[in-house]
Amino acid sequence: MKQQLLQRLNDRAAIIGVVGLGYVGLPLVLRYAEVGYKVIGLDIDQAKVDLLQQGKSYIEHITESAIQLAVDRGFEATTDFTYAEQADALIICVPTPLNKYREPDLSFVLDTMDSLIPHLRVGQVVSLESTTYPGTTDEELLPRIESRGLKVGNDIFLVYSPEREDPGNPNFTTRTIPKVCGGHTQACQDVGVALYGQVIDRVVPVSSTRAAEMTKLLENIHRAVNIGLVNEMKIVADKMGIDIHEVIRAAATKPFGFVPYYPGPGLGGHCIPIDPFYLTWKAREYGLHTRFIELAGEVNSAMPDYVIGKVASALNQRMKSVNGSRILVLGIAYKKNVDDMRESPSVFMMEKLRDLGADVQYCDPHVPVFPKMREHHFDLKSIELNALSISQFDCVLLATDHDKFDFTLIEKNAQLIVDARGKYLVRADHIVKA
Amino acid sequence: MKQQLLQRLNDRAAIIGVVGLGYVGLPLVLRYAEVGYKVIGLDIDQAKVDLLQQGKSYIEHITESAIQLAVDRGFEATTDFTYAEQADALIICVPTPLNKYREPDLSFVLDTMDSLIPHLRVGQVVSLESTTYPGTTDEELLPRIESRGLKVGNDIFLVYSPEREDPGNPNFTTRTIPKVCGGHTQACQDVGVALYGQVIDRVVPVSSTRAAEMTKLLENIHRAVNIGLVNEMKIVADKMGIDIHEVIRAAATKPFGFVPYYPGPGLGGHCIPIDPFYLTWKAREYGLHTRFIELAGEVNSAMPDYVIGKVASALNQRMKSVNGSRILVLGIAYKKNVDDMRESPSVFMMEKLRDLGADVQYCDPHVPVFPKMREHHFDLKSIELNALSISQFDCVLLATDHDKFDFTLIEKNAQLIVDARGKYLVRADHIVKA
Questions:
Q1: I need a labelling partner for B374 at 20 to 30 A (CA). Which of A145, B2, B150, B336 fits?
Q2: Which sequence positions of B are flagged as catalytic?
Q3: Domain spanning A302-433: which superfamily?
Q4: Scanning every residue of chain B, which has its alpha carbon at the shortest distance from the alpha carbon of A222?
Q5: pLDDT tens, B162-207?
Q6: Spatial distance between the Cα atoms of A309 and B115, rounded to a whole number of angstroms
Q7: ipTM score of the complex?
Q8: Which chain A residues are within 8 Å of B250, Cβ to Cβ?
């Protein structure tokens, strides 16, 4: 089985099934199609499938022409999971969020597996890409697959290979970001390396699925903790009358042993605020506390409130209350130059300001209309930035420093800027660093 | 005054006084002498002064020929602080340790200042390089200097410029490591940039002495916290049956957003275990807790015990107690390829093992004889490593992985290796990762 599958993968004759057509799955679809594989995309969302079949995109940084090209090369999207049987490889790219008690919510992964199980067959490889705690592949996927009577490592192959997508990063693509891959057995690993070897420049094999799962978590824990640290340092420096951004820039001139991370209004996105707690949850099984993760979570999730406090005190100094003030939030995506609103601290700040009685508007060149979100509702459109519109706000809160903003225009016309990104280097009475 | 001093500095006609001739001051002496300045070295330690006057070195990585060259070019070392008056610049490079309550011990800095004060004169620049909390230069040095009736910024100039020495780093020298410099006034900063501009390739001016003080602390806090994080991750991964070193190597293949730090038996050296607590202490004045620093301190200082636990359990598995076992500690310097023993976790581990009844020996090619230390006493010499000597120990504890060790020889002949550095990639029954 293994040799046959390896052959099909290496010959690009294999059919690649990608399950979950979001920020992770869709770029992978395009990349497999690009090198000549037949690709089947599976998703439960009929709307996405329809758009893809029409060659249309629903992700800002993925062009329609790229999707059209894949479609022209035979890419098919479907909600019909019976297609899974045709695929030689099934790559699972579904969300792994937290529930409201900060516990792993594996429902997307497990529901996907339940949908796939009836269509598994001898000679397939299953790869999980969703970020998750060490042990998920072994403890959750393996028994489900073997319940079909398929022996993993002989009949069918199982790997974990974490996604490392970084939307908006101009320097790296799916192809050029090295891909870590761990197999349940040596044979599984061999197949996994072949699966990705044709589309990714460098595949990094590790000794187990657990090691691969832990690798992805360590990467994002590293970021969450480093951002937590600079956020704490920001608060300390601010009290001491020191500009943390100046300090970070100076420290970054050290050519070894230091790497700059930047403070902000809080963590956002689908990875950094969430992934670390997958380890926290699993560690409890071993009687361990992940104290850095918990501290980072605490510090980072307090940042929106810290920034709102800066807004309130800057307004107060001008004899104004938040209640009744007109406040413009600049940038509501969670990071610069993307349209992704997931877990965006801007949204928390907008709600907080609204609750305090402010008249809140926003401007985001990447988000023209405030989208429907599960837990947040604003009936707003992005306002146009010009001298007049800017000048009419009591406070402009710079939350996400998109390159598309005209920062000089804003500086010249705003009554008051609260800068949560360290964008403004100048010292001016109407600019407050938050 | 300022123009005259700038001229003398830029013409390399100024006399440079370096106060404190240790790991930081001595390289600076050599560098100033190298470019042609007349240098006076001041230290309270007569033994050091005598050695230097004879062209001899007391620091492993500084060669005698380098010192002899400086002496030939007119470098003089002395314990007589009246020489300070001759110097146009006084650069203070003295230790800033913690007392036993983890509070800043500024006594070396303040005693030095007290010795210098009578010899200060118009037209000098005083630069503090010792790592310290934000505000030290303003709050401690400034009033002392002005008590002499000298107006800082007019008569005399005051800067803070943190040392960034990294002994044992083959890629960077005093000259090529960019130097941050903050002045008490703009004139002070101008003089500071001139002071260092002739000997350091890149001087990085910052807006205040506080910003410069904070910069150095942030650099070392960053390291302490990142090492704390991987140490915590090591414990978690170990319990989950995952090799953290494999995970770090895999994560390090991510070309953005991740930087590898490595776990070990604890922090050592004169910077990373100490410096962060300078900020912790100062932050209390502002009612703030530096929680990441405190957590990192707690986790890192628990690591020697963690490693000893691994030694005990590995011996126990072999039906041996620590009590009565012969244990060889490899590497007692605090980091690889240096001879620096300050705060070395190896020493704590040796004491712990001795207290538990082990017969402890050590081998360190950089430390032939166990030095006299204020709080630690071992009457030991570094043993010779060969097949026979290695095989006679019940356990070999790899604490510091100097390149000079023959790791294959050790692996082949040791009964048991406890590897606290992740040096051994192989899986073998007699190698335990700690």
A1: B336
A2: 271
A3: NAD(P)-binding Rossmann-like Domain (3.40.50.720)
A4: B258
A5: 999 988 788 999 999 999 999 999 999 999 999 999 999 999 999 9
A6: 47
A7: 0.95
A8: 180, 204, 206, 211-212, 215
